[in-house]
Structure formats: structure tokens, C-alpha cells
Design a protein that fits this description.
Order of helices and strands: HEHHEEHHEEEHHEEEHHHEEHHHEEH
Enzyme class: hydrolase
Number of strands: 13
Number of domains: 1
Oligomer: single chain
Helix content: 40-55%
Strand content: 5-15%
Structural class: alpha+beta
Number of helices: 14
Pfam families: Glyco_hydro_8
GO molecular function, one term: cellulase activity
Organism: Cupriavidus metallidurans
Catalytic activity: Endohydrolysis of (1->4)-beta-D-glucosidic linkages in cellulose, lichenin and cereal beta-D-glucans
Shape: globular
Length: 387
């Protein structure tokens, strides 16, 4: 399957400060990267396929991100297909009553071996919140009340089933409904699951209680207080009476999950009151990239030491908005170009593609976020709808 991303065809990159437009691609609102992703990775019936595995899996994360990208592209037809597939196959046909299952694909074990369906029914909270966010914003931008209602119900269910009040911290997002309260006084958390843009938008839903606003604050603490050397871990534990501690399973490593922490940080609105603190918390990562010319694939976040390998092109695309937000526009330009060059050498996999759609799409001006978390797609303000 040909996965070469169409961003490779762009000729020039023009940088500006603070995570704003880095290319002129958004002037016409054409988004070749999205078109390439849609053709290569999304099935005709609306399933995002990770073909790097024999099981040809679909994860709820992929569906959630694709819904967001379809909204950014003003691609209502693809949005509808993605939503229908997600509801029918991951949510037992009803997103108002069920959170989506985390993973779907070809089953290889048990009585259902050889058939296609849900492999792991435990939901993933980051995907659930991104789906709710995309539905709420689709409702607002497309003036579709059905999406607003569905997004509100999904967000409320996630609040009930995927958060807990942690002693000494407050209400906090758990990675899923089950399996993350590992002992009576210990919870396992994931900093990359909390995008402050998403949290702020959900906190602004009319008629909601203060729980979402609390989640903004605890999410910021989860992001900033788990990076003692300026590098985010993939996973972390929270212990009653002891606070955040290194994760016993991943040994404080920061890698394929954590790269999204820098991505979300780089896309924060300039007027977000937490933006400066969050950006400064990870400046050592920016210093490393400037010195080495690439982000590391793995970091020991407790010691600040690095693994031997460089991060792939998706890592470079994800880190570029963060560098731009710090004003390091030359470094942002270099990482954007590295992402394109590596994709030209070897077709990018599913995860690298979505990191690139976020990172390069933001740099190219296809979308931005307001301080309240609302989405500003280029098609809404600078060009007419094309789909």
C-alpha cells in the first residue's frame, strides 16, 4: 500500500513565531496529507487500519484522530463514515450507551479465532475524549445539533466511568474504566492522554459541573509534575501520600506515548494561561533537539539519559509545533523537513502519519486552537468549504 504522504510534494516552508503558520498550504485549504491518509489508511466503510500488524487492527485512538482531521478538512462525508463505523463496531451500535472498545481486528485466540471483531473491550479515555471533542466541535462548526448532543453524552459518560478522585490530587483522568487502579493506594496514569485543549473545551460545555475545570488543573499537574528533567514519561504512577512516582512497568521511560505531550503543548493557544508554564517545563527536550538535530526515541525521564536511537519522522513532526511555540523557528523548520525526508525514504506507518497530520497540519495553518479549546479550522475563516 502506497503511504507516501503528500506533504513531500510541498516546495517551501516559511516559518513564523509561536506555532502559527509555517507554510502557505492553507491558503486554498487543500490538504494533500489528509487526502493521502484517507486514501491509504481509511477503508471505504470508515475504519482506520493499522496494517503494520497481522491482525490489521483498528484502535479507538485512530478513529478519534481521523474524526478530528476530517473536521479540520471540512470532509463531512468521511466524518460520517468514521462515526458510523465507530458506533456500530466499537460501541455496540450506540455511543450514547457505551464507550468505544479500545481495539478491533482479526481475532487470533479463543473460540472466535479467525473472525473479525472487538479484541479488547476496555475503552481508552484519550480516544473517548477526542471523539467527544470532535463531535462537539462538529456540532458547532457544521451547525449539527445531533453531533453536539452525542458529544455531550459521550463526554459525560467518560467523566463518570473514566475519572476518579485521587487523594491529594483531585479528580483525574484514568486511562480507562478498568485496570488502572492497581492497588488500593496506587493509580496508573498516562500524561499523553490529557490534551489541555480538549479538557478546556469540555469544561466549557453548558450546564456542566466543576469536575471538568478540576480536570484541567489536575491534568496540568500530571503533565508538568512528572517531568523532573524536562522529559515526559509514557506512564506514571500516583501513590496516595507520596504523589507521582515512576511507573513500575515501563521504568520511567518516555517514548511513543510521551511524544504527544510535546505535540499538545506546542499547539496550545498563545492566550492559554497555562501555556508558558507547560512550554518551559519541557525546554530540555527543545535543547536536545537543537543540539542533536532530532528528538530521541526513548528517554529515561528520571535520570535524563537517552537511548541510542533517534525518533522517527513522526517524532520530528510532533516536536516541530513545540519548537515553533518556543520561537525556535529554524529548529521547527528542520524537524518538519526531517519528517518529510524520512517519509520519502520509507512510507510512514499509521502512528507516524497521525503525528504528522497533527504537527505539520498545525504548522501549515490548517487549524489552531483558541484559549477555550475551541477549534479554528482554516476553511472556516480563510477559504470556502470545498466538500
Amino acid at each position: 500500500m502506497r503511504r507516501a504522504m503528500a506533504w513531500l510534494l510541498r516546495a517551501t516552508v516559511v516559518c513564523t513565531l509561536a506555532g502559527t503558520v509555517l507554510t502557505s498550504a492553507a491558503a486554498t485549504c487543500a490538504w494533500p496529507d489528509w487526502d493521502a491518509f484517507r486514501r491509504s489508511t481509511i477503508s471505504q466503510d470508515g475504519r482506520v487500519i493499522d496494517d503494520s500488524t497481522d491482525q490489521q487492527v483498528t484502535v479507538s485512538e485512530g478513529q478519534s484522530y481521523a474524526l478530528f482531521f476530517a473536521l479540520v478538512a471540512n470532509d463531512r462525508a468521511t466524518f460520517d463514515k468514521l462515526l458510523t463505523w465507530t458506533e456500530n463496531n466499537l460501541a455496540q451500535g450506540d455511543l450514547t450507551a457505551h464507550l468505544p472498545a479500545w481495539i478491533w481486528g482479526k481475532r487470533t485466540e479463543g473460540e472466535h479465532a479467525g473472525t473479525w471483531g472487538v479484541i479488547d473491550a476496555n475503552p481508552a479515555s484519550d480516544a473517548d475524549l477526542w471523539i467527544a471533542y470532535s463531535l462537539l466541535e462538529a456540532g458547532r462548526l457544521w451547525n449539527e445539533r445531533r453531533f453536539t448532543a452525542l458529544g455531550t453524552l459521550l463526554a459525560r459518560r467518560a467523566l463518570r466511568e473514566e475519572t476518579a478522585v485521587l487523594p491529594g490530587l483531585g479528580r483525574t483522568l484514568l486511562p480507562g474504566p478498568t485496570g488502572f487502579h492497581t492497588s488500593p493506594d496506587v493509580w496508573r496514569l498516562n500524561p499523553s492522554y490529557v490534551s489541555l485543549q480538549v479538557m478546556r473545551r469540555l469544561a466549557a460545555m453548558p450546564g456542566e459541573d466543576s469536575s471538568w475545570k478540576t480536570l484541567v488543573d489536575t491534568s496540568a499537574r500530571l503533565i508538568m509534575n512528572t517531568a523532573p528533567h524536562g522529559f515526559s514519561p509514557d506512564w506514571v504512577e500516583y501513590h496516595k501520600g507520596r504523589g507521582f512516582r515512576p511507573d513500575t512497568q515501563t521504568q520511567a521511560g518516555g517514548s511513543y506515548n510521551a511524544i504527544r505531550v510535546y505535540l499538545w503543548a506546542g499547539m496550545m493557544a498563545p492566550r492559554d494561561p497555562l501555556r508558558t508554564s507547560v512550554l518551559q517545563a519541557f525546554r530540555p527536550m527543545a535543547d536536545y533537539v537543537r543540539k542533536q538535530g532530532y528528538p530521541p526515541e526513548r528517554v529515561d525521564t528520571q535520570s535524563g539519559t537517552f537511548g541510542p536511537n533517534s525518533g522517527n519522522g513522526g517524532f520530528s513532526a510532533a516536536i516541530a509545533p513545540y519548537l515553533a511555540a518556543l520561537g525556535q523557528t529554524d529548529d521547527a523548520r528542520a524537524q518538519a523537513q526531517r519528517a518529510r525526508d524520512l517519509a520519502a525514504q520509507k512510507p510512514a506507518g499509521y502512528y507516524s502519519q497521525v503525528l504528522a497530520l497533527f504537527g505539520l497540519g498545525h504548522l501549515d495553518g490548517h487549524f489552531r486552537f483558541e484559549a477555550d479549546g475551541t477549534l479554528v479550522p482554516a476553511w472556516k475563516s480563510t477559504c470556502p468549504a470545498t466538500r
